[in-house]
Design goal:
The chain is mainly α. The chain contains 17 helices and no strands. Helix 1 runs antiparallel to helix 2, helix 3 runs antiparallel to helix 15 and helix 10 runs parallel beside helix 15. It is globular. The two termini are about 30 Å apart.
Length: about 425
């Protein structure tokens, strides 16, 4: 603690919560729209094309936000982008809540997607920079994944609570709550004195180490031409393969889980209730990742998670999409996916690449993955119907296998890079 009452460890803890709350809003944007889409459809008289466009545009907006992170952090500085991104998110949610028709709703979705797309990679890099310690940084980054999972859970619960409301009223309530949270987070980040202090310390430390997100070139390509460029390129390709295929499965289930359960003869209420239970399972698994991220259990849990996810998909494919098998297998998958999924991908990114490039790398990985997932979302509904879900599930067995194999290859490649002391 300094003489002015500033305690760095407490400030870092609060900063981790602020980063986690940003992740909370990121997942809420996706799941809240998915969970309230029928409310908007009924209340605003949306057609099938407009319903599909909302989900696709949200994913493309998130991707655009993520891909712009390198340029934004270079022009305005990592700290300033971290401070102001959630104002855009709040305005987007507010526009959705007040939307009189499809055009304003679509505009709100675009703003919310752009803001959350920017915030996630910027938050991760800000947390790692300000922690100035690999273990503390990894712990803070893993906490953001708990925030992401909480956003999914809270959004589904909110949608469930407001479901009796008439027309679009339920959707308006959900997005008004999210707008209030985003506005509060924006005010917290820009007004917090302890955040200003911890950011200053992080910026000084980054500059002393030979680079900063604010002053150095943040483009991913610049990293591949410097010291250890070949090793970084290999890590980047493996990380992209791991996350793109993992997110293809995760995003499809997040957007169409209720749809699949209903098509497997579950009622809407049962499907929503099962979704809440399954998200609780995933939250517990994410908390285990956060607790073990800096221990020797991390790699073993990754392997366990990959095996569980693969076994669950095989079980689902063999079961052919029946309700009982789908629910049980999804529960197993939700135990395994967080252990070998997005949280460890975020940690790997922050631990494996040079500080000035981390925000850009994270943005490209997240952004390109979102583009692919958004494109797949156009055809996914037709692929999970009772008549087509069997072959689709076997294809997803391959998706999980590729993701798992790429993750194992990344761990091996990273170990070799560390052994050769690349970039030191």
């Amino acid at each position: 603690m300094t003489g002015n009452g500033f305690d760095r460890q407490i400030a870092l803890r609060h900063l981790g919560w602020a980063g986690g709350l940003g992740s909370f809003l990121g997942s809420s944007a996706i799941v809240a729209l998915s969970a309230t889409i029928t409310m908007w459809q009924n209340g605003l008289g949306l057609g099938t094309f407009e319903v599909g466009a909302l989900s696709a545009v949200l994913n493309f907006a998130i991707a655009a936000g993520s891909l712009s992170v390198g340029a934004l952090s270079s022009k305005f500085g990592l700290t300033r982008v971290f401070d102001w991104s959630n104002l855009v998110v709040a305005l987007g949610f507010l526009a959705c809540a007040l939307a009189p028709g499809f055009p304003v709703l679509l505009a709100g979705v675009v703003l919310a997607g752009l803001g959350t797309g920017v915030d996630l990679p910027v938050s991760l890099s800000t947390l790692t920079r300000d922690a100035n310690d690999s273990k503390a940084g990894s712990r803070l980054v893993s906490i953001t994944q708990i925030g992401w999972q909480m956003g999914m859970l809270v959004s589904v619960v909110l949608a469930f609570v407001v479901s009796p409301l008439h027309g679009a009223a339920g959707g308006r309530v959900v997005f008004l709550v999210l707008a209030a949270v985003a506005m509060a987070l924006w005010l917290w980040r820009i007004r917090s004195g302890e955040f200003r202090e911890i950011h200053k310390l992080g910026e000084r430390s980054s500059s002393a180490d030979g680079g900063s997100a604010e002053s150095s070139e943040s483009g991913v390509r610049a990293m591949f031409t410097g010291n250890g460029g070949r090793h970084y390129l290999r890590l980047f390709v493996l990380l992209m393969a791991f996350y793109v295929f993992w997110n293809l499965l995760a995003n499809t289930w997040a957007q169409f889980q209720t749809y699949m359960l209903v098509n497997a003869n579950a009622s809407q209420t049962l499907a929503t209730g099962l979704g809440i239970i399954l998200y609780v399972v995933m939250l517990g698994s994410n908390m285990l990742v956060s607790a073990t991220v800096n221990t020797s259990w991390r790699n073993l849990l990754f392997i366990v998670g990959g095996v569980l996810s693969l076994a669950a998909m095989v079980m689902m494919a063999v079961g052919g999409g029946t309700l009982v098998v789908t629910v049980v297998a999804t529960g197993i998958m939700y135990l395994g996916m967080p252990l070998a999924g997005e949280a460890i991908c975020k940690v790997w990114t922050q631990e494996s690449f040079p500080g000035p490039n981390r925000a850009a790398v994270q943005g490209v990985v997240l952004g390109l993955s979102r583009v692919i997932c958004a494109s797949f979302a156009f055809v996914a509904p037709a692929l999970v119907l009772p008549g087509t879900i069997g072959p689709t599930l076997w294809c997803f067995v391959g998706v999980v296998a590729i993701s798992f194999a790429a993750g194992l290859a990344f761990m091996k490649a990273r170990g070799q890079m560390l052994a050769s002391n690349v970039g030191k």
